[in-house]
Amino acid sequence: MAPRVLVVDPDPAAASWLSQQLLAQGFAASLAFDAATGATLALTTSPEVLVVDLFLPGPGGVGFVRHLREQRGATPLAAVYLVSPEHVSPALRDSFMGLDDF
User: Fold this and answer.
1) What φ, ψ does residue 52 adopt, rounded to 5°?
2) At a CB cut-off of 8 Å and minimum separation 6, what does 83 contact?
3) pTM for this entry
4) Distance CA 6, CA 22 (A)
5) pLDDT tens for residues 75-85?
6) Residue 73 CB contacts under 8 Å (≥ 6 apart), including other chains
7) Where along the chain do its domains lie?
8) Rounded Cα distance, 102 and 37, in Å
9) What angle do CA 44, 46, 51 make, to 5 degrees?
């Protein structure tokens, strides 16, 4: 069975592109453009990984992931946050030197 990924991003073009890339790599990707739809899909698809816009309208990316993790209890749920370059300060970028990706 393909690993299940849920992409939650309010930018339809970016979210659709990312979802297509994941599908092409063999992932089972679901797509939502808002937190409410994302939460519903998370309950019905049981993703193993979330890819979420850090600045998701409403609860924000961190709040969205926290809520889903609380609902799932002990079931692991990995999360990757998307951040556009204009939202990253040079100081923050410098603090992550040595990481493989940001």
Assistant:
1) -130, 135
2) 53, 54, 55, 102
3) 0.83
4) 10
5) 888 999 888 76
6) none
7) 49-73+81-102
8) 26
9) 110
